[in-house]
């Protein structure tokens, strides 16, 4: 049965909105019926404009909170117990904000009434919210058990481990919702033990075609120890697709606690594609937009002066546009103030150095204070770049880097940036080997990426610019 994700999300939104509306109505009634009569000796319950404003704003507030926390993503496969605790945590923290915004302004006889108001609101919110969600999750789980909902699944591997995983899932008393469309091999055709039950769809190098053709939603990796050298290549391919990826763990994975027991009792490691929580990604994008608009406004006189100086320094256009490779390997054109003489690369791509005679005198000043980077805030505004992220490179140099460091592809997990941890710790690179040396800092950033680390990198970047330590 085809899953109607939009309808399911709409149901969650509807019931969450009803719960938020109910909670505010209960709080409002409690304040008017029990708190204010004790303070003012009069019953003042009436549904005035302030009531409807509060009703609308608090409901919108809760829906935004749930969206930021990612409650409406991956709605088909949820742990009901985990959902209860996540709902409780979000409701408690969100209600504290409501407490300081609304309840704390009340005139009360004693502080006990504050605590009572908070408890009434939290209870009126949490109980219906978690009840509706539990009902929806239970309904979904039963439909999976009845095989009315399934998930197209691809098995990567063809020998003993793959056979064992396939048989364990198939013999489960309660179905896991996996609908196997086939398997792919990792090595050249030798002995495919899985082929007796599943069709061979191709080699792992054809994963992109197979995923698109069979509308694969989940990939289970079950390869032999001797095939582990292919694992990185497989993961790299899968990173470009919106599929859930799980792998059979080895002993080390179990020891360090990477393994989580799935509801169907089979230990698997889920390979996460998203390296930042949803709320941090939204915060990062909002920050990029706000700061870009602010800086473009503040530095507009400096940018105008810089543009005039570029025009005066040498013949050629003011701006320099060059194709770079961004998020998920998609190309875009980066915008900079031109710092080199026209036709500087007429003999082919070349990296610049400190004593590069292709750089104009004014270009050296711009690079020292990174003024040439200012137009890139336009790239940030349209979503091609972020303020903080690994520096984007040209495909020509990416090919050279990947021939020596294949793991460079991990850089494309995030948007490229104007500044980065690599730029802070290493600076500009003038050779491919230096680009590889800088790569380790970019990979460290990706492994520890967070909105708060972005702020740290920005702080160090500002120091470098003020001290004129850029090239």
TrEMBL record:
GO molecular function terms listed in the Swiss-Prot or TrEMBL record: phosphotransferase activity, for other substituted phosphate groups
UniProt membrane topology term: Multi-pass membrane protein
Keyword Transferase attached: yes
Ranges that cross the membrane: 9-30, 50-72, 84-103, 118-136, 286-310
Similarity comment: Belongs to the bacterial sugar transferase family.
Highest classification ranks of the organism: Bacteria, Pseudomonadati, Bacteroidota, Flavobacteriia, Flavobacteriales
Alphabetic keyword roster: Membrane, Transferase, Transmembrane, Transmembrane helix
Protein's UniProt name: Sugar transferase
Location in the cell: Membrane
One GO cellular component term noted in the UniProt record for this chain: membrane
UniProt keyword Transmembrane helix, yes or no: yes
A Pfam family per the record: Bac_transf
All copies of domain Bacterial sugar transferase, residue ranges: 284-466
Chief site of localization: membrane
NCBIfam families: EPS_sugtrans
